[in-house]
Queue: 3 jobs
Job 1
Amino acid sequence: MPIPAAAAEALAALLGPRFSTSAADRDLHGQSESYHRAPPPDAVAWPETTDEVAQVAAICHAHRVPLIGWGTGTSLEAQAMATQGGLVLDMLRMDRVLEIRAEDMQVSVQPGCTREALNTELRATGLFFPVDPGANASLGGMAATRASGTTAVRYGTMRENVLALQVVLADGRVIRTGTRAAKSSAGYDLTSLFVGSEGTLGIITELTLRLHGQPEEVAAAVCGFPTLEQAVECVTATIQSGIPMARIEFIDADVVRAFNTFAGTRMHEGPHLMVEFHGAPASVKGDAEAFGALAGEFGGTGFDWATTPEARAALWKMRHNAYRSCLALRPGATAVVTDVCVPMSHLPAAVAAAAEDIRAEGLLGPMVGHVGDGNFHAQILVMPGDAAELAAAKRVATRMAERAIAVGGTITGEHGVGIGKRPLMRAQHGDAVSVMAAIKQALDPESILNPGKLVPEVN
Amino acid sequence: MPIPAAAAEALAALLGPRFSTSAADRDLHGQSESYHRAPPPDAVAWPETTDEVAQVAAICHAHRVPLIGWGTGTSLEAQAMATQGGLVLDMLRMDRVLEIRAEDMQVSVQPGCTREALNTELRATGLFFPVDPGANASLGGMAATRASGTTAVRYGTMRENVLALQVVLADGRVIRTGTRAAKSSAGYDLTSLFVGSEGTLGIITELTLRLHGQPEEVAAAVCGFPTLEQAVECVTATIQSGIPMARIEFIDADVVRAFNTFAGTRMHEGPHLMVEFHGAPASVKGDAEAFGALAGEFGGTGFDWATTPEARAALWKMRHNAYRSCLALRPGATAVVTDVCVPMSHLPAAVAAAAEDIRAEGLLGPMVGHVGDGNFHAQILVMPGDAAELAAAKRVATRMAERAIAVGGTITGEHGVGIGKRPLMRAQHGDAVSVMAAIKQALDPESILNPGKLVPEVN
């Protein structure tokens, strides 16, 4: 459904050249990093203020135009794709760090600010924002997806690190959720409701984030294991022992092969853990030794310590580029990315079953994981146009999700629902899905906000 | 409005003697620990299973009977009082610890289980549940109120420590929110929505809680300060310095006087901090020394270390009994208890302004605070029946709340809204109140769940 002329005129009058229906702009905002494909949106807008977002929403609401938020376009379940047409709202011009309140360990930012840009601004304060999904995503997008990543095991996810939001509702009203207080019992937790709602309940126009002290000492290392099972069992034992890991990442032999081929490493082609410790020098030393001893019990060998900040940066850059390196293992391929998260005690069995399933289907699916919180991914490589292969990859993904549900886990630990996980929502949540639908209908009765995403059985 | 005969018959048929309309049972469930007064409920029920709760809800829904959850009756804003009549659901017979999953650091409990009963069951596991509001409250009630208390500065509030819930909805449907995974991005965060909803959206019938490792070493101490301002500034400096306090509690001279009079202490009658450190022996030693040095800078003297577990238990028991000790300062009095929480940098000014305001109104209002997260309370003592005094106390409470809002804080850090904070909700939340109302109406269209509480402008 193209945008009604009256709506397009109102949007053009409001935004001038920052409203576009050109094919180039639309195509740029119709891309996806994963296997999902959809036609481009009907138009793109680049608001610069909350008030403009509110006016855009009011126009879209009046004319029933779907409104889809867009950050850096790095979501993996098509959250930012205009699957029902409509207007994509590119938030990247609202990218300012509004106020750093160092004494309260808080910052207010606009949604288009990326996590790396924020941390660059914070460098001199002794504080940092820890949530790190790998991609240099926008903070608004990270909140909308309830993103997490490598450091969540220590610092929590966006759920724990967003203190308050400013949100534009479906009809253009602007609200603030939460306060600057560290905690509150003053009514429904609307901040938590909007975090993870993937733009289906409102458009985030400002975020108040918790900051953390930059650790006095940081140590990072890579360590190899004879088998996948031993590596993952080492993770479970580490977490259960209470060693306060800042990062504990699993990579399998295929990922190591990708690193060796495309990132210039010369690692043994077997499963590895990548770990990091934060804290006072004495405790970092103690934690690293305790981990080393545990790793040894599970056959861990060949510790390679990144001793300089540059070496650590290179290490985590390599990890963050794993997605692209693994894509390069099969030129031309795209990926079906799984994202289950299970209770720690079920992690070894879940990873082993996934590996076996991928092998049995004859697929190539390198696995990585933020395994310290039970979350791991298979990046199943499929060739565009190969329907049989895509179907096989989706079968594996569905079985991984079903096994996760069976042990009390979740179908998505951090990537969100979008359209990819939507068919599995009822299997995970049962009748709670109808509560989600009731909330969606209460807050967006015309269903203009990212329609067709997240909540199943609602248009 | 009495309960319709058909509803009473259905409830009696379902529950037998566990449904009562006797004056004694009703009176017992019409009490409040604070100044709020309301007639007793029309009836009381003691369900023993989730299915019974579901059937009770269905009956109440069909007959539009208000349904109010009841735990230990220790809420401070009349959350459990039947202000519009109806049925009080006493959850204390659903008090079992259902499953301890030590390897996942989780436990499943029924809502009537108290935090002390849970920790007694956990003693042998090396794990504990940290949230500690003072009262030995039921865990269901703590979740419903989004309670926190003395340890929130280190371990978080109920928001951070409830992983999932089973909830009976207004019409008797039963849902599960959340999973056993450490994190999830699978849709709206219903767990966070029900935590803190004070029984207005559903009745909690099961909780999955996060557990923490019992600290290897614990150290606790009391330390006096020359002035209130210096004590509170020491707190702000401590938190900003990053010392990982397990507890940091402020008590003013009036509270010390209550302790000296009723708890047998012989402390100097001035402001004090009560602190606790958790961790490995070396880090506890280092943290305690770092705090000691900081306290010295702010005039802290007379450190009294509780070196044995018994001494520590006595110390925190005294703190937990502060409410009753302070009530005893004025025999026959009841209390208007304030509960603001402000950003750390505003804490010293907020505490000083409250003290001055109480003094100016000629009131006695001992102050305590979980000041490590910016939360403090004045327990303003009023004589029942003295309308002028009650009005003065409410004026002070309202001004404290308004000052908190003005600096980005909250009207309630942990006690919740109930009926006491309801008139201030719009001042804090603005139009976000209408989002709360929309959610309330979507999930409880007949408004049978704890009607008249929390959400203003909704019956």
Job 2
Amino acid sequence: MKNLSICLTPELIHLSDLKGKVAVVIDVLRATTCMVTGMAEGIPSITPVAQVEECKALQAKGYIAAAERGGKKVDGFDMGNSPFDYMEAAKTGKKVAATTTNGTLAISKSAAADEILIGAFVNLDAIISYLKAQEKDVVMVAAGWQGNFNLEDSLFAGAVAAGLEGEFELEDDAALATKVMYQAVKNDLAGFLAQSAHAKRLAKMDIQKDIDFALTLNTYKVVPMVINGEIVLA
Amino acid sequence: MKNLSICLTPELIHLSDLKGKVAVVIDVLRATTCMVTGMAEGIPSITPVAQVEECKALQAKGYIAAAERGGKKVDGFDMGNSPFDYMEAAKTGKKVAATTTNGTLAISKSAAADEILIGAFVNLDAIISYLKAQEKDVVMVAAGWQGNFNLEDSLFAGAVAAGLEGEFELEDDAALATKVMYQAVKNDLAGFLAQSAHAKRLAKMDIQKDIDFALTLNTYKVVPMVINGEIVLA
């Protein structure tokens, strides 16, 4: 049976052996939700970069540049970290370059994996189906918040664990814990997440619309993956 | 209102500000269960040490020396990491020195806190009562397993979070997550934990009796704390 394990924050990634495995990077609020949305809406590719400067350099080459730090758009960039921005960007037909506080770091820290997928509630079932159909062990990599555990990414990891149980061995305690947590609150995800630290931070920024969108399941059927440093569709 | 946060593994302790706070160190299987048991049964003090060599040096000075690595007693020591060993040790009236894989490390990494308490299911209500009666913010420090998240310590953290809710603000997402997890499985703690990675490891070592003991709530009413490098009773 294939194994499923969960890395609760990139700060613990050194404890996960990613070699030969599929990594699923999760940053529900909001980086991976944006990426799934953008790819599903027709952006040709999204290049995740760790530094604001790299993002600026790609902007100079004609990319639409998205830069977010601490939940806000960085001055001088085309857009921040809202899925609705990505929908607009998709209409231009241009490539996107993106840097975010936690999500792009989680992608770069997952580089040792054989494949890196981009997951969020908006493509939950597509991720589950993809993982079932392939043969490798899987590590879910929650982006967390500045190195720490967060609720929304862990809940998504738990949703995948619940969906894969029976076909995958839940290999570590984090998989068991997040699965139980997801099953306990899945009928009121939004209500439960409203208590979370990051939701409270984001609420102050008046982006409830983004949060509602990010917590809607299965809006899209795409599975974006990182190939040669670019996010493209599987 | 006082704040409660949870550090899910000592590997994340640098993200917690312990200064001026009470830390509760948790290593349910089995270090803190042993410590609570030993203190409640009458051991005058337990000195937690990080290294096997330090433990050996205290043995030479007349301490009963407990050393565990990877779940097993280290050769040449008086006892390993079973609460029943600690009950026997209590009958001698001697001091104990102890080193374990995860628990003693969690204690040493909590040194910045104002107070360090020793918690386990066997003294759950005593810990909750103590924390309610004092005035400081609290950080629960789960010992985990070799740096990683584990189920039993997180469940205990969640049990404390559930017990303190209303009087404490659940400050971080880990407190919310572990509380929900505990509430979902509290009626069958043993059944749920039997699935955990560490329980499976320990089951191979034939110490089911220790596990059953560790998962029994409120056997003791004591609150051990670390004072000047020794665990003593509050």
Job 3
Amino acid sequence: MTDKVYKLIELVGTSSKSSDDAIQNAINRAADTLRNLDWFEVVETRGTIQNGKVTCYQVSLRVGFRLE
Amino acid sequence: MTDKVYKLIELVGTSSKSSDDAIQNAINRAADTLRNLDWFEVVETRGTIQNGKVTCYQVSLRVGFRLE
Amino acid sequence: MTDKVYKLIELVGTSSKSSDDAIQNAINRAADTLRNLDWFEVVETRGTIQNGKVTCYQVSLRVGFRLE
Amino acid sequence: MTDKVYKLIELVGTSSKSSDDAIQNAINRAADTLRNLDWFEVVETRGTIQNGKVTCYQVSLRVGFRLE
Amino acid sequence: MTDKVYKLIELVGTSSKSSDDAIQNAINRAADTLRNLDWFEVVETRGTIQNGKVTCYQVSLRVGFRLE
Amino acid sequence: MTDKVYKLIELVGTSSKSSDDAIQNAINRAADTLRNLDWFEVVETRGTIQNGKVTCYQVSLRVGFRLE
Amino acid sequence: MTDKVYKLIELVGTSSKSSDDAIQNAINRAADTLRNLDWFEVVETRGTIQNGKVTCYQVSLRVGFRLE
Amino acid sequence: MTDKVYKLIELVGTSSKSSDDAIQNAINRAADTLRNLDWFEVVETRGTIQNGKVTCYQVSLRVGFRLE
Amino acid sequence: MTDKVYKLIELVGTSSKSSDDAIQNAINRAADTLRNLDWFEVVETRGTIQNGKVTCYQVSLRVGFRLE
Amino acid sequence: MTDKVYKLIELVGTSSKSSDDAIQNAINRAADTLRNLDWFEVVETRGTIQNGKVTCYQVSLRVGFRLE
Amino acid sequence: MTDKVYKLIELVGTSSKSSDDAIQNAINRAADTLRNLDWFEVVETRGTIQNGKVTCYQVSLRVGFRLE
Amino acid sequence: MTDKVYKLIELVGTSSKSSDDAIQNAINRAADTLRNLDWFEVVETRGTIQNGKVTCYQVSLRVGFRLE
């Protein structure tokens, strides 16, 4: 059997800058411990508010990587 | 009973600049009349098109705040 | 009968820059062959990862236009 | 900042006549106290039954209006 | 234990006249064999087309009734 | 291979009269250019409001037709 | 063919005590007339309010049982 | 009133062979006691695992039949 | 027009005791300022964890009340 | 702009043999008139029943292809 | 980059006592091997039935914790 | 506390043969490193197309196993 198998994990990236940056932060962290990261899917975008400003974007995403 | 209770309202922010800016615009407006704004959740991202360009991002979001 | 009728098509725009740019790219392409583009609705945001970096944002969106 | 912001509220209109009439009843009531009502979205259609007849259509809908 | 228990069944009513009439037809039929019909919830509205006309509305609905 | 294949397109019909009429309007328009229209499925019902009245029902629907 | 087949029915249990008790009440009632009840899945939790108090939990659940 | 009315029931078919076979098994069983079976819709596909092998496909499906 | 119209608001009740208690707390708070509270629908159950224990149940619910 | 853009269309493939074969049939048909077919996503599996047997698998799927 | 990143895992807690207890049991177990457990979200509530009684509540939940 | 706790992971199995085979491949791979695999739930079925043929079925599934 040589058909590829992938695993999906769910992460929440955060950023004070932008929702795209929150995605990148989650993937940066995942890349510290996982190889073969292949794709992501956004599940939900949330964030925190302080004094009427967005202080933190929180993007939950599923990240897929190939199992060796 | 001292357990906190929160209320969620749904807003649609708009922006000609970016989807993140549409979120911020909605929250700016909410902060004019509501205190204790705490978090938001994006419900849907839409927009208008004119002459083949995105002219307006429309992001509907639920905004949570603590009831006093 | 003069009531307007619209058609929705689904596209996936891609961009190495940002998710908003992926939306714009899809709409640019649609505008090459369709007139009366009116609005879009984001369906899903995905992307590809290489070497622990987001290399491509993929945003699927429904695009509505008036039938003449 | 001059970008428009909208608020969505959720209502349930009822009518013994038709589901369309239930929608209109909810909007009539909203117009008593809110200005700038702009659009609605049907969330769910339910109803009550008595003696094997529909006695009441209950349509829940989200109603959007521009914040001034 | 005297708390009430209800059962939900799912029906598809059809009508060549209107979607509301399809709902009523389903409930009429249910009332032939079931007592205590109490409420309905629309699940989906579909229909058939012939020669460019709606020939039949098909409304699937969940119908609740009290168990004795 | 003689198994039938169908295509689904998504339309938004509009009507100032009723939601059922909005469905019919969308199908009328589709029948101008497509043959073998077979069925429809309602996706969403929305509408516009002016002066506290429903001025337009907007029903988005998927319309299926057989490919020849 | 000896592979098992199961049927799912949907019930709404009610209780003035708790949401778990509403589940149990629905299952008690189902057990009066059905054998081989095997599992349940909560579909929705609702309830009624009187004088600012929850007076009744209403839990709709799907109940599965083996067909003999 | 001669418009047809259909009922939908939900079954779970099981099979050690394939997911398609699990569908067929559920329908075989339904046909033992119901006439006019007309269509099915797959709701969910699950299964059991033993010693790292799929030992049973479990397909829940809604089965529609015309009420006489 | 004498058909009833209801409004739905969304609240998040919290409790360190139980999820049912979180529901009751949200409704208690709503009853401070709103009359005619009629029913609730649970939207989501979440909670906070500290030292491996559930420290707070957070239940978001839609609460319906009749408009006068 | 050299970022790729894809279009998604929705088809329903049918087969008397298997659900996988219904997928293949839809794609075969799409390949008659479209180039660059790239991926598919199953939306729903349904089928017809005659004399207690599955006579036709109907699989609706979204098919993606690159726009040139 | 000092923005926090969280991971979500999905567990199913079981309990013969209550659905809240099933949640606590899942979190107790997670705390055996994971630090920084922060929040949970209920995904689904199911259970097993024996002799017409709920014998086991099964609550699947997503548990979030901060990655160090 | 002796109540069982389960963990769910999400995998994507692939196969050039069939969607059922893609499920089995994912489970084979999971069994290499995990004990007590107990059940799976199909989340989504996708696939790749080359030259108008399905070249690969990709089935994402949640796999549950008991924590010891």
